[in-house]
Fold each of these.
Amino acid sequence: MNQPTERSKKPRIIMVSGKGGVGKTTVAASTAVALANRGQKTIVMSFDLAHSLSDSFNISEELFSTAKGRPVRINDNLDFQEIDVQEELQRNWGEVYRYIAYLLVGGGLDGIVAEEAAVMPGMEDIIALLHINQYAREGIYDTIVVDCPPTSESLRFVSIIGSIDWYVRKRLKLDRRVASVLRPLAKRFGGESMMLPEDGYFAALQKLFERLDGVEAMLHDPTITSLRLVTVADRMVVRETQRAFMYFNLYGITVDGVVVNRMLPKDDAYFARWVESQAQMLETVHSFFDPVPISTVPFQQSEVVGLERLEEFADHLFGDSDPAAVNTSGAPFTFTKVSEDEHLLSIRLRFAPKDEIEISRSNEDLFVRIGTFKRVILLPRALVSMATAGAKMNGDWLEIRFRKDHV
């Protein structure tokens, strides 16, 4: 791995993602252990609803159950946190949580079921982002390791800030104004005014969104945040890893490493055909992802549970190198000033099928869609008055040109 670059005062953020079952939680936990052993104050956090970090660290159920989603101390340099969405909602999102639950009860759901269903998709993503932003502002950790859920949910996590930003800019004030007008009308005509959110609901949303301020810039800064993809030497899994690489780049996330887990020993005759297949697939992985660093980890003889086994796994993964090193040359998208009248937006989209890329625009919002995934890019002010003058793929890069209209 390359030597670490000069780091900012913000904590280093390392996200770990991959297809379910490839060992990403083990990679995330062992990364955190390696950093803590090197003197870095580290927290590893999970917002996957199927938590397994506590299992990796072999934490007793009694300690886990009393944590209620708060950080748990492993040693002086290491904490871990498994986010409990309902606890967080009740602690910090009371107004929003109560309103959603009330709507569901009004729709016929039992009260307890409604409370469960009020945990809407994406809430765990927002809560995780709130914690990341909080820890960055407080400065209590040198490194934050994020054990992400499987790939599709991880993509929602990195894209949800763009959706929130769009809602705040386009809808929040309007929705708040409309609700304030309709509430007294509903009361006058005997309607169920409580089905309309009170102003406290919108105030809670506004406060919530303000707490997210700055987190998107951190996630898109390659000197602060990078993502490591975990895979195995299997054709189907590698194909998903390729797609994940492309989509994370679309959302502005720097992928600075690929970990190929569970490589079989070469000297075992029983697995000779599997070893040959894995060797061929490893060559394919290198050809696909070069120059992104590729790490391999051998198949473990026993399950990786507890600090000692995590340390052994980390030795295979990192050796003497710095687990927090930034292993890439730049961000996955850039704005370039070509001339006074022309700017260029470049997005790294390796593996993107050209015929599936769709580009559209509405004023300051540029929409880039690939398959079922869409990113909203807020254009800089200098580009808002310019016309979109075409797009093309140049190698691994999607280049979108903007030009001034001369009348």
Amino acid sequence: MSLIIHRYIFFELLPPFLINMVFFTFLFLMTKILEITNLIVNYRIGLLTVLSMLVYSMPFFLQFIIPMSVMMSVLLTFLRLSTDNEIVALKSGGISIYRLLPPVFLFCLVGYLMTSFMGIYGLPKGRLALKELAVRVIASNLDIGLKERTFNDQLEGVILYVNKVDLKSKTLVDVFIQDQRNEKVVSTVVAPKARLMSDPEKFTFYFRLYNGTINQVDLDHRSAHMIHFDTYDLTISPPKPPIGTPGGPKDEEEMSIPELQQYVRQAEKKDDRYYLALMELHKKFSIPAACFALGLLAFPLGIQSKSAKTTFGIGLGLFFFLLYYIMLSAGWVFGEAGVYPPAIGMWVPNVVTAGFGMVILVRTARERTVRLDALMAIYARLKSSFTKPENQRSEVGGQRSENEKT
């Protein structure tokens, strides 16, 4: 009998979970609509490349979307079961609230594994893949922007003139470059052939020039020098990448767990990145564990809110997740500053949320209600504030129509 009930509850949790995943992912895409438009219009990037960038950046958001969807799914499922009096029927059959926990914990375990995969494997690989893709995007954009027989000043501090551009081989013929990035020395480079090169690891771009000359004018000493070269690499500063900020050494989100552990062991506490690396290491485990904490909180809240509507349940879930996120953000800020150990900042939100959920669960099992009157009153006020203007407009419209008839 218990197995049938557990299976029933577990499969009841799946539809709202999938709906919430789709909904919050859609919200994420809506926040990226301006960047997508910028990529297509200004960078002339294909739709497939844009989709690849979004996929690579999804693990960062999914590590928050999955715990939130787990919480909303548990809350809405038990809110529906309570509203339909199915919880009352189960209690009448001698089944306690605690015996309904196994499918909830199994569901939270699935969310924990999914979030752990996103944080431990998906996030580092996605960030590195996004870096490489951004390098290719900018390199191709530079190639497209190089116009033949035209002075190009799109590169910061560098004026470029190319007689001919071969986009297939990325070869530039008859190149003239004036480098004005050094205020004291102006360099003019002339070469019959050059190629645009890039280093994805360091996120650098440079022109490799062959068999040319460099004329340097020292403005302070009023002197000039000429240098002949066989091969010369001129580093350039590309535009900002359209999504993310790739480049340089790996940041904390790009590191794997062994790399983070090694960095923490080798770095000193005075290092600015020491606390960031330590917090990122704890975050890879604390955020997946939030599936259990938020699920444990949502379970009794759904049962206690049987008199409320579904919209109130959604607002209740968003409210408590917002509180959790505020605690997590505060822990990150203070942990980064070294006010207290990063472990406290990353794990206290889970402990507080789970502790609050345990208190509500015990009260629910003992048939003691948890007063949500204050939240219900706030919800009623917000609802009335949005519905009043509509009612007033309809009344005004009715009065106008009556006046027109008279």
